[in-house]
Specification:
With 200 residues, this protein is mostly helical. It has ten helices and no strands. It is globular and about 55 Å long.
Length: 200
């Protein structure tokens, strides 16, 4: 990557980091483009070289953070230690939960705004190999579209189920709730397997 391209990427990351901080501390409606550019140490006009408006930035930021979360969850878990594919999926889920537990602003930001379109963009950004890696931990074979839907469903379900648990400790504290979530995920995976078998 040349110096010009590195400089462009640096400015892009500054704008995105600035926006994430402001969106999660002030809220999107109370954050102006001038605020974002100013905190990034860039001219307001530079903003428009990368984004149409702050809502375009918001969507790209969600995709960026979601793709990093997926990539991290897949890379930080040692799936080779598990023989049971269900245990591999649980390890993937726990890696996502741990990220939400460590960064509650990320949970608030992603969970409320993760649409299918944003998620599909996040999967593209994560890199083409991410679905193959996820396929390796699933208990059955799926098409690429089915895998996208499976990852999206897991992230949505885990995010929604754990939103109050992680942020408020309700109805149970995080560590106490995890076994219940694990049982639900296992039941969900088994129902997919049963449906797949009955269709064949």
């Amino acid at each position: 990557m040349g110096r010009v391209e590195q400089n462009k990427q640096l400015k892009l990351h500054k704008l995105m980091d600035s926006a994430f901080h402001l969106f999660t501390s002030k809220g999107i409606s109370r954050t102006s483009i001038s605020d974002i550019a100013g905190q990034a140490g860039l001219a307001k006009g530079t903003f428009y070289l990368y984004f149409h408006d702050k809502y375009d930035l918001q969507q790209k930021l969600i995709a960026d953070r979601a793709s990093k979360m997926i990539r991290h969850a897949l890379s930080c878990s040692d799936f080779s230690q598990y023989d049971d594919p269900e245990d591999k999926v649980i390890a993937f889920i726990d890696a996502i939960l741990d990220q939400f537990q460590e960064d509650k602003a990320l949970l608030r930001f992603i969970n409320k705004r993760l649409s299918w379109g944003v998620f599909a963009r996040a999967m593209d950004q994560a890199d083409p190999g991410v679905l193959g890696e996820f396929a390796d931990i699933l208990p059955y074979k799926m098409s690429e579209k089915e895998m996208e839907i499976a990852v999206y469903t897991i992230i949505e379900m885990v995010g929604a189920a754990c939103y109050d648990v992680i942020l408020e400790g309700e109805p149970l504290p995080y560590e106490e709730y995890k076994p219940y979530l694990h049982r639900s995920i296992r039941a969900l995976l088994r129902s997919f397997v049963e449906n797949k078998t009955s269709e064949e």
